[in-house]
Amino acid sequence: MKHILFIVTSTNKTGTGQHDAGYEFSEIADPYFEFIKKGYTVDFASIIGGKPPFVGYNPSQKVSKNFIESNGFKRLNFSHKLNQIDITAYDAIFFPGGLGLMSDMVDNPLVKEVIKIVYEKGKVIGAVCHGPSALLNVILSDGSNLLEGKKINSFTKAEEEEDNHTLGDVIPFMLDEELIKQGAIFSHTKPFESYVINDGNLVTGQNPASASNVALKMIDLLPG
Which of 43, 89, 153, 194 is deepest in the core (most CB within 10 A)? Predict the structure, then answer.
């Protein structure tokens, strides 16, 4: 049995305008069920533990409705503190998007250490939409930046603009631009269409439509 750890934001406001933030609901719900269907165990950790904030719940989305009624959602609302997790117990980690982690994961030393450990052990790391914010500022044991020369994608500037996510007021930076600054080879598709890319054991997806496909690619990479 494989064990997957979802690492979730604890931040509920973002930007100078103090806009509602948290994890994007479908970006946990959709991948969760892909992993569960494979018989994997999914655990949840967040920066401060407990009930993480969320945005974007849509009861007309069947998978999201199923998730909010599931035991998985109940367990998510009692998430472990990340600093109490034995990361070596997991086969993969996954960062769902939402604007919250653009604040509490970009420079968090524990998040950086967790990613370094998982990456250097050759285990799988997935992230979708704004989730790749967590991959910024990760320095590996050889002193190199994790993102240098890696094929990566994320939510794009075009998508931020369509969602009226203004710089400063709503988001602290343009994620695609920051990934490129740290050496990522960035690729993308049209706004809000599914797009997933992997480079070795790193899997990234562009937007909410990509969340299930990130999980499926992670499953492909996990040894049987």
Answer: 153
Residues 6+ apart with CB under 8 A from 199: 150, 151, 152, 185
pTM: 0.98
Cα separation, 134 vs 103, whole angstroms: 10
User: Please, what is the average pLDDT of the chain?
Assistant: 97
Q: Which residue type does 211 have?
A: A
Q: How far does Cα 30 stand from its chain's mean position?
A: 12
Instruction: Determine the Cα–Cα distance for residues 149 and 120; give it in Å rounded to an integer.
Output: 16
Cα separation values, 181 from 12, 95, 173, 178, 195, Å:
27, 21, 12, 5, 21
- Which one, of 224, 117, 100, lies nearest residue 171 by Cα? 100
Tokens of 50: 């407990």
DSSP string, 34-96: HHHHTT-EEEEEESS-B---EE---TTSHHHHHHHTSHHHHHHTTBEEGGG--GGG-SEEEE-
pLDDT digits (tens, 9 = 90+) for 119-171: 999 999 999 999 999 999 999 999 999 999 999 999 999 999 999 999 999 99
Within 8 A by CB and 6+ apart from 195, the residues are 153, 187, 188, 189, 205, 206, 207, 210
Token pair belonging to 97: 């998007």
Nearest to 7 by CA among 121, 120, 128: 128
Q: What are phi and psi of 29, to 5 degrees?
A: -60, -50
Contact present, 183 and 145 (Cβ < 8 Å): yes
Helix (H), strand (E) at residue 127: strand 124-128
